[in-house]
Amino acid sequence: MTEAITSLVSKSDAGVTINYAPLPWFIALVFTLIPFHHGAMRHLDDAYIFSDVRYRKLTFLVNYLILFTEAGALVWLGLVLSSPEAFLIGFVLLLGIDIFWALTTHFLTGRLQQVKPWLLTNLVTLLTIALVHWTPVFDQIEPIYLVFIAVARTVVD
What we know:
Elements: H1 2-8, E1 9-12, E2 15-18, H2 23-48, H3 57-79, H4 84-109, H5 112-134, H6 145-156
Helix pairs in contact: 1-3, 2-3, 2-6, 3-4, 4-5, 5-6
């Protein structure tokens, strides 16, 4: 968030300057960051603290490393607010990592029912992005569509 806010607001001797151009991408980042962070913490609590099942330590490590990689993708999104193309790449990468995490979690813990909604939401989101971004019919649509998709993904989540 610090990097994202830095791209929006800068301070100089003349005062504070607000750059409004990356504001839609900042909104998309906030709407993406909150459910990803909350979902990751909730999953770790449910699987490793409040669960009656005790998973191997390696299972926790794998879960943690994948979620840490997701955090890196979120930082990337905060760094590239001024580039819609780079934001798109980061957003698709984040969704791909989360799909990989859901599948890995299923195979390591058997918790498919718990991660299935996130898995399906991310798959539908990726398919929607692919449809809008790579279909010639939608060539005239501005990259701002991704902001609406990110917000809609969070609302569905």
